[in-house]
Amino acid sequence: MQSRFILAIIATVAATSATAQTSNTTTIDRPGYSGTRTTIIDPVTGIASRDGTVTRKADGAVASREMDRTRTDSGVAIQGSSTNFAGETRNVDYNRTRTDTGSTATGSFTRRNGDTLTYQSNRTRGDGSFAAQQEVTGANGQSLYARTATASRSDAGVGRSVKVTRAPGFQPRASARAARRR
After folding, report:
1. 157-166 and 143-154 beta bridge pairing
2. Strand partners, 80
3. Would you tell me which of 8, 21, 61, 99 could form a disulfide with 42, CB atoms 3.0–4.6 Å apart?
4. How far apart are the first and last CA of the chain?
5. pTM for this structure?
6. DSSP 8-class letter at 92
7. What tens digit of pLDDT does each residue of 126-135 get?
8. Which candidate, 63, 73, 107, 110, places its Cα nearest to that of 90?
9. Euclidean distance between CA atoms 8 and 14, whole angstroms
10. Is 181 helix (H, G, I), strand (E, B) or coil?
11. Do the Cβ atoms of 69 and 40 come closer than 8 Å?
12. What 8-state DSSP symbol labels residue 32?
């Protein structure tokens, strides 16, 4: 009887800790800068956030970053911003929605120089097939980067095709590539 009671308590504690919000604050102290980074994850609400601030020791300049990821009924939403020591800010706003056959995503990214890029993608899975399109456009609507990938499976094997077009001098930023994988 007593062992059943103990097992019930252990099961309750384990279930509670698996769904409890976690928070972690890390202190950063390097030779050139110091600061803090706080990460909060709440599996019940589906919200994860990471905020950080560092101060450069030489002149007291401050850099900061904040990022919030929210699980929605049909996907995920990400909003964030960062400011460097020079006071230049960049922002991201990204939404991905699951569909019956894949997903769609849209986003906007504001660079430190003020340029705004727009991102959109569509992924579709079918019976033995896959197709993905991604495009980044500039502020005036010009295409800066486009990628189309298809794959199909048949008795003869697997066929794949990838087509990439990129405006001269444009390099996709790591954050755009990372957002595409989420």
Report:
1. antiparallel
2. 67, 92
3. 21
4. 48
5. 0.74
6. E
7. 888 999 999 9
8. 110
9. 10
10. helix
11. no
12. S
